[in-house]
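Slide 14.
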Amino acid sequence: MVKSENGKPSDIVKLTTFVTNKSDWWPINSDHEKIFQKYFKNEFPTNSVVEVSALVEDGLDIEIEAIAIIT
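Slide 15: predicted structure.
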């Protein structure tokens, strides 16, 4: 969605990461670090990790909500 509004990853200021198993996502491991480096360079958005069981019902392990400021 950010790209469709002519934004870029650096416009993202806040992530909320919903996961079915928080221990798989926190603390951030090297794979997560590589993804953040690729898309955000050294300007990481804030990120809240929230464990929820409802994702399992939809067959998901993760869902990410992003807030961006596009000027």
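Speaker note: The chain has two helices and three strands.
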